[in-house]
Each structure stands twice: as C-alpha cells, then as structure tokens.
Design a protein that fits this description.
Blueprint (H helix, E strand, L loop, with lengths): L4 H14 L3 E2 L8 E6 L6 E12 L2 E10 L5 E9 L7 E9 L2 E9 L6 H7 L4 H8 L21 E3 L4 H25 L6 H21 L3 H8 L1 H12 L2 H10 L1
Protein name: Phycoerythrobilin:ferredoxin oxidoreductase
Family: Belongs to the HY2 family.
GO molecular function: cobalt ion binding; phycoerythrobilin:ferredoxin oxidoreductase activity
Length: 250
Amino acid sequence: MTLYQPFLDYAIALLQQRLDLQPYLIPEGFEAKSAIVGKGKHQDEVLTTSYGYQATKLRQIRAAHVQGGNSLQVLNFVIFPHLNYDLPFFGADLVTLPGGHLIALDMQPLFRDDLSYQAKYTQPILPIFETYQQHLPWGGDFPEEARPFFSPAFLWTRPQQTEVVETHVFTAFQAYLQAYLNFVEQAEPVTNSSSLRAIEQAQLRYLRYRAEKDPARGMFTRFYGSQWTEEYIHGFLFDLERKLAMATTE
C-alpha cells in the first residue's frame, strides 16, 4: 500500500456515493506509464497511473498517481467544474520526495478578489482550514505569481513525519472534499452570458498558468521524455483549451 493510495480510494468511493459518476476519456498511452530509474541496488520502478471521471456539474475529475518507492510518492487530484457553473476548482497536491512531504489543499477560486464570491465559497470553509492549520502549519515560501489562484483557505504545509500525512493530512483531505461536494450539490447553472464569458476566461487563466508552471514537468520529462510529458500535461491534465478548440472546429 503506497502512502497516497488511501486518499485516492477514499475520493473515488465518496464521489461514487455522492455523484452520478461517469468515466472521462483518458487519451491512449496515459492510463499507466512506467520507467526504471537509478542504477544497481538503487534501481526503482516509477509507475504513473491516471484516473478520469466526469459528472453532471463537473467537466473533469482526474488524478495522477506516481509511485516510485519510499522517497517518491505523488497524488495530484483535481476537479474542474463545467463552464456554466461558478464553482471553484478542487485541488490536492500531495507530494513526498527524499527531503520530506509537500502538501497543498484548496478550493481554488475563479474570482479571488470578488467579495461575494469569497462569501459564497471561501467563508464556509475557513473553519475547516483553521481546524487543521494548528496541526499543519504554513509551509513557507510560495511563488508570488501563484497567489491569485489560491483562496484564503489554502492549506499549504510541509510535514516532516509521515504519520502526520497519514492522520491530519488525510482527515483534512476528506473534510475539504466533502465540503466541495456540498458546494457542487447546491450549485445552480449560470445563464448570464457575461458571467459565462468571465467563468470561461477564469478557467482558462488558471489552466494556462498550471500547464505552464506544472512542477511535475521536470520529473515526468526525466522519467518518460518531453514528448510524452507535454502531451500528458496539455492533452489530459489541463485539457480545456484543447477541448474548446476541438469544439469550435466540429
């Protein structure tokens, strides 16, 4: 059992329980990919598996799970709403490297500086954030350019002990995901054309930023080569731009 498998199992079970979950097409060649890294006694297999789902209000629910021995475990789990909902994104980046754990959990806002949006989507989850912050203190430096994409309830922490990941991080992940699905349940479709345009622009802004700055790019390139990596990032992990382009040519 790898460190983040219970997170993935929990998320999929909860989504199946609460949503009308359907498969989301994973492009060929991305369901699973492995590589051998290191030499001699230090050789390890790195396996990356991908999961994709969709639901009535959610365009893409996807996970990338990287398993590379004790010192490399990653789960990137993101939910993108359909473009006619003003829902935030759900984002969980759970990373274990030789130097320790890097944990980022958030409901990433479409409109961070809009006070009514904050009241709707950030205020209700601040108590959850505050509950876990005492066990999961702020992880320090964070790129200035990334700040607009995160909410005031952004849980960013670098726990030293694996036990903290297995306990406090796991329960925080559960609480955030449950709260997110409550938002999804209550969400009403947006019909106003200028609001719809603003939502599409906000989603594209976020996806372009994430695709350009994806911290896993270097790691994937090292394991699987740059061609596979770029296609994985733009064709699966952050595929909205491509999907919209395809829709306009059909």
